[in-house]
Amino acid sequence: KKTLPANPLPTVSQYACQRRTTLDNHNKVFTDALEVLIENYEFSDNKGACVGFRRAASVLKSLPKPLRCLKDMEGLPCLGDDTKAIIEEIYECGSSSRVENILSDEKYQTLKLFTSVFGVGPKTGDKWYRRGLRALEQVHSEPSIQLNKMQAAGFLYYEDISKPVSRAEAKAVGCIIEEVASCFSSSVTITLTGGFRRGKEFGHDVDFLLSIPEPGKEDGLLPAVIDRLRKQGILLYSDLQESTLQQWKRPSRCFDSMDHFQKCFLIVKLWTRLVEGHREDPSSRRDWKAVRVDLVVPPVDCYAFALLGWSGSTQFERDLRRFARLERRMLLDNHALYDKTTNTFLQAKTEEDIFAHLGLDYIEPWQRNA
Ligand code: DGT
Ligand code: MG
User: Fold this and answer.
1) I need a labelling partner for 336 at 20 to 30 A (CA). Which of 206, 284, 296, 358 fits?
2) Of 72, 126, 160, 207, which one is the catalytic site residue?
3) What pTM value is reported for the model?
4) CA 9 to each of CA 18, 28, 66, 67, 175: distance values in angstroms, whole numbers, following the listed order
5) Residues 161-185: pLDDT tens digits?
C-alpha cells in the first residue's frame, strides 16, 4: 500500500529568482523570528550566519501556505539544522528561546535603536554602545561625539523619517520630483522603484529612477533637481554622488558594492496637504513631514539593469547574481550582464530581456518580495 506525502509541496528552487514571492507571507511567525537572528548577526558582522538564515527566511516567504507540521519542511532547500530547530521550538512552545533571548538583550536593543538613525550603521552603533551610551538623547548630548552631516540630519528629522512612508506619500513625492525634473528637460521619465514597485504599501524611503532618452543628456540633472528643491524651500538634506561609471569595467562579484550611477540621497519636506486622502489633524503641530528620497540616474543603455537592480528585494537581487554566476557563468550587476563563456556583454532594453538572457522565467516586480 502506497502512502502519499502529508502535504505535497511543489519543488522549491534554492534561488529566489526561480520562485514567485508575493507580499502574502504565510509563514510570518517563522520569518519574523529568523529576521531577528539575521539582524543580530548583522550587528556582529557575522556574514556567514546571515547568509544561511536569509536564504531560509526567503524560502519560507515563497511558500503558498503555512508550514503545518515538521514534515512540511522535508525537501525544502536552504533550511539548515538551526532554522529547523527554531521552527520546531516555535511549533511546540509558540516562540523560540534563542530569539526571545536576543530580543531582551540590551546590546541588541541598543544597536537596533542606534542603527534606526539615518547614517548610523552597525559599526558606529557598536562604537557608541561600547562607550556606554544607551539612548539617542545620550548620544546627542555627548560632547565628544562628532556626528557627520548625514547623522546630524538623521537626528534632526528622526521623528519623521523613522516612521513608515505610505504609498500616497510616495506618490506625492513623485509628483514633486517629476515637476522639478521636467524643468531641466521635458523628456525626463521618472519610475518608482524599491519596495513600492514590488507592491508594498509602506516603505522606509521612496526610490526613483530618472532617465533621459538622449544619451549623455543626463549630466547635470540631479544638481538641477536639488537646486530647484532648495529654491522651493523643501530640501532638508542632500548628498549628491556624481557618476563614477568611467571606473566601472565589468560586473563585480560583490553585491554590496554600490553602483556607479549619478545618484542622490535626500530628505525632503512634504506638505501634508499634497498627500491624497490627507485629513486635517488639528492636534498636529506641523503641516509637513520629512521624507527620505533616493534618486538614481542611469544612462539609457543601462536602464533595464538599473531598474532590475533598484527594484529589489535585496535578497532577490543577491540570488539573481548568484544564479547568474553559478548556473550560467555570467556576471550581473546594476549596470550590465557579462557572459564569461563568450566574453561579451549582453544588451537589454527591458527587464524581460535580462531574465531571457539568464534563461529564467520572467518574475513580475510584485513576485520579487523574497
Ligand atoms: P524599503 O525602502 O525599506 O521599503 O525597502 P526597499 O526594498 O525599497 O529597499 P531600499 O530602499 O533600501 O533599496 C531599494 C533597492 O535598491 C534594493 O532592493 C536594492 C537596491 N539597493 C539599495 N542599496 C543598495 C546597495 O548598497 N547595493 C546594491 N547593489 N543595491 C542596493
Ligand atoms: Mg526603498
Assistant:
1) 206
2) 207
3) 0.95
4) 15, 18, 11, 10, 44
5) 999 999 999 999 999 999 999 999 9
